[in-house]
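Q: I'm a student working through a structural biology exercise. My instructor gave each of us a protein and asked us to get a predicted structure, then write a short paragraph describing it. Mine is Phosphotransferase. I'm not confident about reading structure output yet, so if you can add a plain explanation after the tokens, that would really help. Here is the sequence I was given:
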Amino acid sequence: MATWQPTWSDPFFQKGQFITGLWNKKRYRIDGMLGSGANGEVYRVTCDGQTYALKVSAQAPEISLEHKILKQLQGVARGADLGPLIFDLDDVQTPRGKVFFYVMEWVRGTDLPDFLQKRGAHWTPVLLLQLCTYLERLHAQGYCFGDLKAENCLVNEEHGIVRLVDFGGVTPFGRGVKEYTEWYDRAWWGQGSRLSEESYDVFALSMLAIQLLAPEARKGVSQIGPNYSMLKKAILSDPRFDDWRGLLKGVGDGRIRTIASLREALSPLVKKSVETEKKLKRKQTRRRDWTDWLLLGSAAVLVLVFCQFLLF
Ligand SMILES: Nc1ncnc2c1ncn2[C@@H]1O[C@H](COP(=O)(O)OP(=O)(O)OP(=O)(O)O)[C@@H](O)[C@H]1O
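A: Happy to help. First, here is the predicted structure for Phosphotransferase. I'll explain a few features afterward.
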């Protein structure tokens, strides 16, 4: 009978499994996978009745570096929710050998495209403005986020609050960005270096806006390769970018290189978004009023019918 042999494509853990850290002896129940990427896998876990996110990798340096950065940020930006809060760092033995993990706050949220689909594209500048605030705080600590991308942002559906996850690309200013994704990488587009600096994240934010407003553009680029001037031309003729041209042009020609200037360029768009949201809310209330009347009307008819029934 053939026995099951683990392969590299198998996940590290299975749902329902319990794991115990070799050093700290904390016992976690694996509740499911939250995501996976080049550096490892992230699981939702339970320990002592609390839910956490656990990131595991076969590469010890990646895990300990991410843990160190998150811990450092937790210390300096208390209450600022810069990154997920950090709880444990340990190793565990698996059929694939010893693997390394850290345990962090489970960030509940939807990904940005799903959120925008539900709440409307007019939320894009609002989400970007929030990211500006996080990045500004990170920059103040002397770090560039590096691997800014839609997959690394989770948004709370109820309140529309964005959180950043995956701090694996966070790099001290002045070094080469250690983790990046082509679409968001200005060097890939031939628009600058991969040096870890404020303007690197600014460029990535502008690419995030394009990705969110015109997701199909990225698919086209994956077929023909990076061509920034072609992308700019496409944006010029696309009505979805009517309000965004000034900002995107500013980033493209190097006028907008800081988060402060990006925030300034975003502010009229945010104002417009707020107006759109208000109008939508008013419409929804009106629609609700109308349905309320319909309900009241139906109730009145029912009462009348009931009275007629009693009288005759
Ligand atoms: N703290 C968290 N709470 C909830 N979900 C999380 C958390 N951390 C990560 N995730 C989810 O897991 C996914 C993968 O995590 P992460 O990006 O850290 O892995 P990675 O291997 O570094 O990926 P990549 O190769 O894309 O950089 C994220 O996109 C996110 O959806």
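A: Here are two points you could use in your paragraph. The pocket of adenosine-5'-triphosphate is lined by residues 34-40, 42, 53, 55, 84, 104-107, 147, 151-152, 165-166, 168 (CB under 6 Å). The longest strand covers residues 27-36. It's a good idea to check both against the output above yourself.
Q: Great, thank you!
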